[in-house]
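User: Predict structure, ligand glutathione.
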Amino acid sequence: MAIKIYGPFRSPFVMAVALAIYEKDQEFELLMMDIKSPEYLNNFNPFGKIPSYQDEDITLFESKAIMRYIATKFADEGTPLLGSTIVEQALCNQWLEVHSHSFTQPMVEMARAIRGNPQQPDASVSKPALERVNNVLDTYEARLSTSKYLAGESYTLADITHTPFFYIFNAITDDENKKCITSRPHLHAWIQDISSRPAWKKLTERPENPHYKQ
Ligand SMILES: N[C@@H](CCC(=O)N[C@@H](CS)C(=O)NCC(=O)O)C(=O)O
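Assistant: Predicted complex:
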C-alpha cells in the first residue's frame, strides 16, 4: 500500500509529515476526508484532527509520532532525522517538545491575528501575539547562535517540524511583522537554510500547496 496522508497543506502539521517522507526519499498520496465524519473519527483520529497517516502496517495520528515512525521505519534511506549521537537524539526530542508546548501556540495566535484582517491587522490583537512570538524567538536565536540546527550539527525532525510554520508565517505576514525573524541573524540564517533543502522545495511546489507561487 502506498503511504497516505490525510489533510490539506494549509496545515503546518500535515506539511511537516510530508516533509519527513520526502527527506526519506519516499512518496505519498495526499487525501482529504471530512475529519468530523464517523468514518474518520472511527478509523483515523478519534480527536477529529489532521494529519493522519496510513501505510500497510499502521494507521497513526499526531504529527510528531508519525514523523518519528517514518524516521525509524526508513532509517537506512534518505536523510537521517533522529540525530547522529545520543546527545543529538535527546536534544531533537527536547526541541520537538518545545515546538509543542512553547512555540506553536504563540505562532498560531499570531497567524490568527493576521488572518483576521490581512490588510490591516488589528493592533490590539496582533501586538500581544507578536510580543509572545518575540519572546519565544529569543530562545531560538540564543540556541541557533551556538549550533547549526536545533539538535546540534545534524538536521533532524526538530528542524522539520518548524519549517512549515515559518513558511506559512512568511507567506501571510508583512515586512513589519517579518522583522521578528529578520532582526535575529542566527534564526534568519537557519530558516533560510532549512527552507532551501531540495525536499522542502519539492513539497512547496506541489499543486496542493495554497501558498505556491509560480
Ligand atoms: N498535535 C497535533 C495537532 C494537529 C492540529 O491541531 N491540526 C489542526 C490543523 S493545523 C486540526 O486538525 N484542526 C481541525 C480542528 O481542530 O477541528 C499534531 O501534531 O498532529
